[in-house]
Amino acid sequence: MTPDVVFVKPLQNYCLEAEFATGERRWFDMKPYLSYPAFAPLTKEGLFMRAHVAYGAVTWSDEIDLSPDTLYLEGRPA
User: Fold this and answer.
1) Could you give the 3-state DSSP secondary structure of residue 6?
2) What is the per-residue DSSP string for 11-29?
3) Structural domains in the chain?
């Protein structure tokens, strides 16, 4: 089972640094995901920099979130 995200820091150039409940930190590049309609709004009006944690996932709004599974499995150690 993938651990929950407990802290996220949005970085320049559409990258995230996430800390998991295990204490592990991973770096995740969102750029490849921005071409998907669900994530395209993150390129407008500084929305990406408003990333925060809700219920163990990274979220930006009621409609845009990223699962801890994706962050953990696709991210690289920070």
Assistant:
1) strand
2) ETTTEEEEEETTS-EEEEE
3) 5-77 (3.30.2020.10)
DSSP assignments along 49-73, one per residue: GG-EEETTEEESSSS-EE-HHHHHH
**1/49 Cα distance (integer angstroms):** 28
1 has pLDDT over 90: no
Residues sharing a CB contact under 8 Å with residue 48, sequence separation 6 or more, in sequence order: 10, 14, 30, 42, 60
Q: Is the pTM of this model over 0.85?
A: yes
Q: Per-residue pLDDT tens for 58-73?
A: 999 989 999 999 999 9
CA distance 28 to 5: 12
As a whole number, the mean pLDDT across the chain is 96
Q: State the distance between the two ends of the chain, measured CA to CA, in whole angstroms.
A: 20
Q: How far apart are CA 55 and CA 33, in angstroms?
A: 21
